[in-house]
Structures are given as C-alpha cells and as structure tokens.
Write a structure and sequence with these properties.
The complex is a heterotrimer of chains A (220), B (314) and C (483). Chain A is mainly α and 220 residues long. Chain A is built from 7 helices and no strands. Chain B is mostly helical and 314 residues long. Helix content of chain C is 78%, strand content 1%. The radius of gyration of chain C is 21 Å and the shape is globular. A two-stranded antiparallel sheet of chain C has the order 1-2. Classes of the chains: A mainly alpha (220), B mainly alpha (314), C mainly alpha (483). Chains in contact: A-B, A-C. At the A-B interface, helix 1 and helix 4 of A face helix 7 and helix 11 of B.
C-alpha cells in the first residue's frame, strides 16, 4: 500500500458509495431513499473532484460540478417536491423481502469484483481498483429497480445506476470525453423531466404511483 | 516485565473504576438530548454502592448457579477489560486471548447469565434468556466477521498486533474498516442491550431482553451485574477504539506516553458515549422480529468490508 | 454541408412545432419538414455515392455507404409516415382520442425523434451515438403514452424503464470501449471516434472489447427488440399511435442494430475471431423462434405485427452475425425490405383499426368490402412480409436461408420452422380480416394510402430487379461490415 492520501480518500469514497448502495437497498422509506441518493451523488462528486485534482484532468471538474448540480441539488429537490405534491405513501413496497435482497446483493458484489479484477489490472489509472465497486453499484441499483414496486423508486434505482456508470468512467479511464459527459447529463436531465410529466400522467390515470396497477400487458 | 505487570493492573483497575462513569456519562448525554434534567454523572456509583449495602433476597428455587453467576459474569468482564489494549499496548495479559477467544469470553458470560435467568423458572427469566440467545446467535458471527476484516489488514488475530499495525505504522486509510466500523456499531448495540435492539431503561414485558433476565436479582448480586454491564460497555468501547481509532494508545513499554494515552482514552470515551446517546436519541427501538434483519445487515456489512479489503487494499 | 441540413431541419422543425403554438396546419408543416429532410438526405446520398465516404465537422460526423443507406431509408420512411399521419391523426382528433395540445407534442416529438435517429446514424463518436439513441428513446416515451389510456401508460413506462436499463448497459459498454481505446489513442475526444478506432482496432485489448461488446449487444439489443429483451416492444407498438408504431418498427430498430454493427466491426478487428458474430447469431435465432411462436397467440393486430418485427430483426441480426459478403448483403437488403413493408402494413392496419374501432383482430372483418384499397394494401403487405415472391422480402430471406444452409446448416431447421409457423399464423389471421363477412359501413374519410402503395411498389420493384448502382452500393456497405 503506497497510494498517496488523496487516492486513499478516493478509495474510501468508493467504499462509501457501495455502502450507500446497500443502504438504499435496505431503505424502506421513500424520503430516506431520496436523501441517500443525494448523498451518493455527493460522494461521487467529491471523488470525481479529488481525482481531477490529483491527476490534473481538468475536464473532470466539470463532470464533478455537473454531478453536484444535477444529482445532489436539482434532482433530490425535484423528487422531494414530487413526493410532497403527489402525496406518495411513505413506505416502499418490495417484491422480495429485504434480507433476501441483501443476500442477492452480496452475491452480485462478489460477481462484479471477480469480473472487474482482470480488467482493473490492465488499467493504467491509479484509481483502477474502484472499477469493481462501480460495477457492483450498477448491479445493486439494477437489483433495486427490479425488486421495487413504486414508480419513483424504480427511477431512483435508474439514476443510482447512472451514478455507478459515471463512477466507472471516472475510475477506469478518468472520465469520458467532456462532450459525451455533457450529452449524458443532458439526457438524464431530459429523462427526469419526461418522468415528472409521466408521474403525473400515471397518477391521473391510476390514482397511485404503485406499479401493481400496471401489470395488465402480459403474454397470456 | 514488572512495568508490564504494573501497567496491566493499572489498566484493569482503570477499566473497573471508569466503567460506571462512562455509563453515567451516556445517561447524562441522553437526558440532555431528550430535554430532561440529567442525573448526576456519578449516579451509577451511588446505585452500585446502595445495592451493596442491601440484604440479598433469593428465590426459594434458586440453585448455586444463580448465586454463583454474577461473580462469574463480573470476572469475565474484568478479564476481557484486561485483555483489550486500553491505555497501553502489548500487556502481559494480551497473549492470553486473541479476538476470537475474546468473543468466547463474552459468550461464556452470556451463557451463565441465560442459565441463571432460567434457573429460577419464572416466565420472564426464560423469555429474556431465549431472546438474548436469539440476538447473540446472530450478533456473534457478525462480530467475528468484523474482527476478521481487521485481522486481514494486520495478518493477525492478536489485538496488540492489530493496534500496532493501525496506530504505530504509516497512516493508511482502509475503506474496509469503514464497513467494519458500521457493522461493529450495530453489533455492539445488540450486545450491550441498547437501542435499537433493546432498551436499557424500560421494564416493559413485551420488549425487554436484558432486563428480563436480571429481574430476580437483588442487592450485591444485582450490583455486580450492573457493574458488569457497565464494564461490558466500557470494554466494547475500548475494543472499538482499538480497532478503528487506536491513535494514542501507548506503545509497548513506553511509560512516557502513558499520560497522553489516558487523556486520549478519556476524550475518545466521552465522544463515543455522546455519539452513542445521540444515535439512541434519534433512532427508535426495533420490534424483536426486526432484530434478525438488523443483525443480518451488520453481518453483510462486515462481509462487504472483507470483500472491499480484497479489492482495494491488496 | 448537406449533413448539417439533414440534422438541422428535423431539430429545427421539432423546436418550431413545439414553440409555435397549437396550429391547425401542424400536420402539413410536419410533412413539409420531413420532405425537406428527405431532400437533404437525397443530396447527401448522391454525393456519397459519387465521391465515396466522407468526414464532416472536424471528423465529428462520418458517412460511408453503410450509414448513408440508412440515412436515406430513415428520411424516406419518416416522410411517408408524416404523409400517412396527416389524415390519420385528424381522424383520431375527430374521434376525440386526442386534442390540440397532444397533437402539438406529437408533431414536435416526431421531428426530434427523426433528428435524434439521423444524428445517431451520422455521428462518428460512439459516445454521441449513445447519447442520441437515448434521446430517441426519450422523444418517443411520451408518444407511446399519447392516448393516456392505462394500457398506453403502462406500455410507455415499460418502454422507458426497459430501454433505460438496456441503454445503461450500452453506456457501460461504451465506457469499456473508451477504456480500451484510451490506451491506444490517448485520452480525449478522439478516442471514441469510430474512424480512429477502426484504424487501430487490431491493437485494442481483446478481453476488454469482448466484455464491452457483450454489454453493447445487450444494451442496444434491447432496443432492437432481441429476445429475451423484447418485452417492451409489442406493448409500445400496440398501445402507441399507429404512425409511431410505424417509425418505431421501421426505423428505430434499424438504428439500434446499426449501433450494434458499428461495435461489431471494432470487436471483430480486435478479437480476430467470430465471437461477436456467434453471439449475434444466437440472439437473432432465438428472437426469430420466440417471436414466431408468440405470433400464433396474438389477438391484437398491432401486437401481432410487432412480434413479426422482432422476428425479422432477429433474422437480420442472424444474417449480420453470419458475416461474409453474401449474408451481409442479404441482411442489409432485408433491413430495407422490412422497413418499407412493415411501415406500409402499419399504415394499412392503422386505417383498418380506425374504421373498425378496435385493434382486436376478431373485430376487424371484411376490409375488402368496407374499403377495398385498405384491404388490398393489408393483404399485399402481409404477403410481402411473409416472404412471398415476387416481393423483395423473398429475395432477402432466400439469400439469408441459403447462406445459412451453406455455412451453418444446424440453424436451417429452426429458421424454416419459425418462418413456417409465422406464415401460417399471420396469414391465417389476416385472411378473415380482409375477406371475412362484415356489416360495418364504409370509412367516411379518404385514407392516405399513397404511402402504402409507394412502399409496396418499391418492395415489389426491388424484388424483381435491383438496379445495378443500388446493388453496388449494398455491396460496398456489406464490405464495410467486414464482408
């Protein structure tokens, strides 16, 4: 272990990111989930900024600022407002009980660590070992999406997945080219607004944001 | 060698004497946070003293085991307090038990407590013992995993070596310890019968665990058990300090670092106690059926810490 | 220069239609913008055919025979669909299913959707490709839920979430690609440019590219509608307005497959084996078989043809997976034929459902009496998509199957069985719709059937005779795909 301190901090933040992913998986209340999502964004922005500072990759500052603006401030604010406005019930319903979900989560973490190991050994970046964590975050967010019933939690899962992907980009290759990152951020922003409209449509039609009303279209 | 023995005695005495103080501090902090007027910080000492002056009342059915248990529990805790490096590292007692054996010592105390509780045959005692066994059955594996994570870093299960690696070598951030620390906090709340698993101040039949087991005790027996409880909290705090924030513990045989070590210990204990009461004030007690989930989460976090260690720190 | 027109017109059109209020002539403006796009695309195509591949905008855009053919196809189908949607949406409005506000949303989203697809096709940057694919998805989510019925909202939600997850996988694949590229090309924007990557593809790290391709295939494959990731597709097609079904089926699936193909070329170069092709063949074959057997169980006409789209996209994916000049040629041809035919069918189906007032096939009877042109359009379209000679689909399917017999004989029985099952079920269901007994009155409106017969005419022409310059062009494109 001869990493410099700021990279140790990045590693610590990576661990924190994973911890928050697990906390989101075990969180029962929607408001708590949104707060955790904001914290995840904050951890991501901090680690991106530290990587930017320690490697001199200035475009990463932009990326960090973008994350901070969108995922720590704008989106949680938007979601809090939405929850208040739509009067969503506070408890999250799950398809599988939470301990089982956590066990599956651990299995996913082991899987992604194994998958990432050969790749991270090839990487030239100093933050390479966090690639496995990024991958685990992506898979955990995916798990959250498929085990939750409420529309809003699915979206939070989706956005948390996006966080994991950004983290993967930062840790594996010091981020994507700036244009691409801008584009991705724009898409995410537009996506969230489309969703906002969509939530209102869903609620107008079903009087609820619970997705169990939306299980009619199936192959019989 | 003699300094070592002296230090050992000093540390053990310090633990025995300071333990009720920590308890008093936690109670005081909690009272403040809840907006009540706080009991004096020395209240646990007074309680223990008062109890020692009373005459013991024993149930008719109580066997020898029932009388014998408080002494054994107290002895276990004293032994544990002697082993965990509190103010100085690498004391003569330390090689007696590594972290795994330490878990065993705690388990021994708990088994006798549970046996004593069932000994009289009241329904509350049995109920408390069964609940205690359920909780500890879940908490112990998690605690062991926490210790394994810590010992992976220092390649040893001996506490002095762990402290040595973390405190006296070059400073390195170990992300895995962050997971382990959260898991450790969760386990120690369960082991010390605190919120959210148990509530030390309640005597409500439906929820109590630890209190149910000691309902039949009185006078000196109760005093010893209360003291042992305080000592356990102290030992766990010392353990947490040794594993996660060991800076300040005097290196082996270095007497000059001792005053600083005592000061560091006091400061850390004060902060830790305040933190504990803060967390207790903001969280609610879980239903008993949620306890397995809570402890399962602790276990998973400890496992995650271990995995993170393999990914990030090798 | 043409490239900017091709991209600029639809994007400007989208903004214009969104900001200029609820206009009663919006359908015409929509068609006008689509027509201008088509003209620009035609000019671009002529130039590429004459001058060969070109880069534009500081190598941000790259156009070769492969994507210019898709650009032309996209612009063409987008234009004919806008012609079809003009009367169709008017009738929907008269039926009270839509209002002016939603039509405004529809028209502007339509243009932006076309613009996003054209950007995806022409960009040289794998990252921008991803961004524009996502933009195309977002533009259509609100189109699928345009009717605001519970079923359409559910379909749109499924579409958004499944494609969102899929596209997130593709982003991960892109990140891995950049990760491999950065070591060869250095950090920065150039490392994701396809032309640069293509030049150094044999130096890229094979392990990483292998993993990247799996993610890219799963990600973009979700949008292609490959089984087992196809769940969103039938719902979105069945519940959205028919013009949207036509462009989704005829265009979006192609564009997604285009993204997969661009990645495949890189991965093939890096790996030196046919791992990517094998995967594509597997997914393609599975889609063909799964879709064929699901077609049998459908009762909703748009759903049935949606499954047919999955089947045909599976077939194209299979053909591209086989690789080689003949199979790639056949794949490209089939892609064209499928786009033209399937959108024609959706046009006819749209009018048929409008006149019957239901999408259930049991409720649609005797089209040949109520409206002979729609009836014939649907019948001919169905025959064409089922691969009856002399339509072009026959030629491309024939090529694909003979190549498969030659190179991968094990796959032939599956393909033939699936095609047979699909033929029997679709024909069996369409026949009573067209020729059955009915009491329904004739449709009061004049349907827009020019697009239907325009498409079918082209398919017929290409089935009988492929002009030499067109064949040349396909061959060039096939060669680019590693033929």
């Amino acid at each position: 272990m001869t990493l410099s301190y700021h990279l140790q901090v990045v590693n610590l933040l990576a661990a924190l990111l994973l911890l928050i992913s697990f906390a989101m998986l075990s969180q029962r209340r929607i408001v708590g989930l949104i707060t955790l999502f904001a914290w995840q964004g904050a951890a991501l922005a901090t680690s991106t900024a530290i990587v930017a500072w320690s490697t001199g990759q200035h475009h990463l500052y932009w990326s960090a600022a973008l994350t901070l603006a969108l995922k720590v401030i704008a989106m949680p604010w938007f979601f809090f407002r939405l929850v208040r406005k739509l009067d969503v019930e506070r408890e999250v319903e799950t398809m599988i009980n939470i301990p089982t979900t956590m066990l599956i989560g651990i299995a996913l973490v082991i899987f992604s660590f194994n998958l990432a190991l050969p790749i991270s050994q090839m990487s030239g970046t100093v933050t390479r070992s966090t690639l496995g964590i990024a991958m685990a975050c992506v898979l955990l967010a995916f798990l959250m999406m498929i085990t939750r019933r409420k529309a809003i939690t699915q979206v939070l899962g989706f956005l948390s997945m996006e966080n994991g992907l950004f983290f993967a980009a930062t840790s594996a290759s010091y981020g994507m080219p700036l244009v691409v990152e801008m584009g991705v951020a724009l898409d995410v922003l537009v996506g969230v607004f489309v969703l906002g409209i969509f939530f209102f449509q869903i609620r107008e039609t079903f009087d609820s944001l619970d997705l169990k009303h939306m299980e009619k279209l199936k192959e019989r | 060698m003699t300094t070592g023995i002296l230090l050992q005695i000093l540390q053990t005495l310090l633990a025995i004497l300071l333990a009720p103080l920590l308890m008093g501090w936690v109670n005081q902090c909690r009272a403040w946070l809840q907006g009540r007027s706080a009991p004096p910080i020395g209240q646990p000492y007074r309680t223990i003293k008062k109890l020692f002056h009373k005459d013991a009342v024993l149930a008719h059915d109580a066997s020898q085991l029932f009388r014998f248990a408080p002494y054994l529990i107290f002895a276990c805790m004293v032994l544990a307090a002697g082993i965990v490096p509190t103010i100085a590292n690498d004391l003569p007692f330390s090689p007696a038990a590594d972290v795994i054996a330490l878990v065993g010592i705690f388990a021994l105390a708990r088994v006798f407590q549970a046996l004593a509780a069932m000994d009289i045959g009241t329904s509350f005692g049995t109920l408390g013992a069964r609940r205690e066994m359920l909780v500890s059955f879940l908490a112990e594996p998690a605690l062991l995993m926490v210790f394994f994570t810590a010992s992976l870093i220092s390649h040893s299960t001996e506490l002095p070596v762990i402290v040595q690696t973390l405190a006296h070598k070059q400073f390195v951030i170990y992300p895995s310890l962050a997971f382990a620390a959260v898991a450790f906090w969760m386990v120690s709340t369960a082991e010390n019968a605190r919120i959210p698993i148990d509530n030390p101040t309640t005597h409500l039949e439906l929820t109590m665990i630890h209190e149910a087991m000691i309902l039949e005790y009185s006078a000196r027996h109760l005093a010893l058990i209360e003291w042992a409880v305080a000592l356990k909290l102290f030992t766990y705090s010392a353990l947490g300090i040794a594993l996660f924030v060991p800076w300040g513990i005097a290196p082996a045989g270095d007497l000059s670092a001792l005053p600083l070590a005592v000061l560091a210990l006091l400061v850390k204990m004060m902060l830790g106690g305040a933190g504990l009461s803060l967390l207790e004030a903001i969280s609610a007690k879980l239903r008993l059926f949620r306890a397995p989930e809570f402890l399962g989460t602790a276990f998973l976090l400890a496992v995650l810490g271990m995995l993170t260690h393999f990914l990030l720190e090798i | 220069m043409e490239i900017y027109w091709v991209l600029g017109i639809p994007l400007f059109g989208g903004l214009f239609l969104a900001l200029s209020g609820n206009r009663s002539n919006a359908p015409e403006i929509n068609a006008l913008f689509s027509f201008l796009t088509l003209v620009a695309a035609a000019v671009l195509t002529v130039r590429i055919v004459a001058e060969g591949p070109m880069m534009a905008g500081d190598s941000w855009f790259f156009i070769d025979s492969f994507n210019v053919f898709l650009v032309a196809l996209t612009a063409f189908v987008a234009f004919t669909t806008s012609l079809f949607s003009r009367p169709y949406m008017r009738i929907e409005k008269e039926h009270g299913r839509l209002n002016d506000k939603r039509l405004r949303l529809y028209h502007s989203s339509y243009q932006i959707f076309i613009g996003a697809m054209l950007l995806a096709l022409t960009t040289n940057n794998m990252g921008i490709l991803w961004v524009s694919m996502e933009a195309a998805t977002l533009a259509t989510v609100l189109l699928v839920s345009l009717y605001r019925t519970p079923a359409s909202l559910e379909a749109a939600w499924k579409y958004f979430i499944l494609c969102g997850v899929g596209i997130a996988q593709a982003l991960f694949g892109t990140i891995l690609l950049y990760f491999a590229a950065e070591k060869v090309l250095g950090a920065g924007g150039n490392a994701l440019l396809w032309t640069h990557l293509n030049a150094v593809k044999d130096q890229l790290e094979p392990t990483v590219l292998q993993l990247a391709f799996v993610f890219l295939l799963v990600g973009y494959g979700t949008k292609v509608g490959l089984a087992p990731l196809h769940n969103w597709l039938p719902d979105a097609h069945a519940e959205g307005p028919t013009p949207v079904s036509a462009v989704l089926s005829g265009l979006l699936l192609n564009v997604a497959l285009y993204a997969v193909m661009r990645s495949k070329v890189l991965v093939d170069g890096a790996l030196g084996n046919n791992m990517a092709g094998g995967l594509m063949m597997g997914f393609g074959l599975l889609s063909v078989v799964v879709a064929a057997f699901l077609i049998k169980r459908q009762t909703d006409v748009k759903r049935m043809f949606a499954y047919s789209s999955i089947e045909h996209m599976g077939l194209v994916t299979f053909a591209f997976g086989m690789g080689g000049p003949v199979a790639s040629f056949a794949g490209l041809l089939h892609m064209t034929m499928h786009s033209l035919t399937k959108s024609a069918i959706f046009f006819a189906v749209g009018h048929a459902t409008q006149s019957a007032g239901t999408q259930l096939m049991d409720g649609i009877r005797g089209l040949i009496r109520t409206n002979p042109t729609i009836g014939w359009g649907l019948m001919l379209g169905t025959l064409a998509i089922l691969g009856m000679p002399p339509f072009g689909v026959f030629a491309s399917e024939f090529l694909i199957i003979t190549t498969a017999m030659h190179e991968h004989p094990w796959a032939t029985p599956f393909l033939l069985t699936a095609l047979g099952v699909a033929f029997a079920s679709i024909f069996g269901k369409v026949q009573p719709m067209v020729f059955g007994e009915t009491e329904l009155p004739r449709l009061p409106h004049q349907p827009a059937l020019t697009p239907v017969f325009m498409h079918l005419g082209l398919v017929l022409m290409l089935g009988l005779f492929i002009p030499p310059y067109l064949a040349d062009w396909y061959r060039q494109a096939a060669a680019l795909l590693g033929g």
